[in-house]
């Protein structure tokens, strides 16, 4: 299991993620965030990579 880290690894990914629908953010918040801080993202070139996830406004302490 990944050690929780409260930071964003890639600001470009964060900018793109902000455009996600509210329902997607809610699903991330409810299902993913309690278990890990990593998601797999697709970059512009189409490759998959893991990025650290920081949910803005959520107290991760």
Write the layout of secondary structure elements.
Blueprint: H1 11-17, H2 22-32, E1 38-42, E2 48-52
Structure, explained:
- The chain has 61 residues and is α+β, with helices and mostly antiparallel strands.
- It has a domain at 11-52.
- 30% of the residues lie in helices and 16% in strands.
- It is built from two helices and two strands.
- The chain has helices spanning 11-17, 22-32, and strands at residues 38-42, 48-52.
- Strands 1-2 form a two-stranded antiparallel sheet.
- A hairpin with a 5-residue loop joins β1 (38-42) and β2.
Query: Uncertain runs with pLDDT below 50, 5 residues or more?
Result: 1-13, 56-61
> How many strand segments?
2
Major sheet summary line = 2 strands, antiparallel
* Molecular shape: globular
State the share of residues found in helices, binned by percent: 25-40%
Q: Please give the order of strands in the largest beta sheet.
A: 1-2
Order of helices and strands: HHEE
Rounded to the nearest angstrom, the radius of gyration is: 11 Å
In short:
By secondary structure, the chain is α+β, with helices and mostly antiparallel strands.
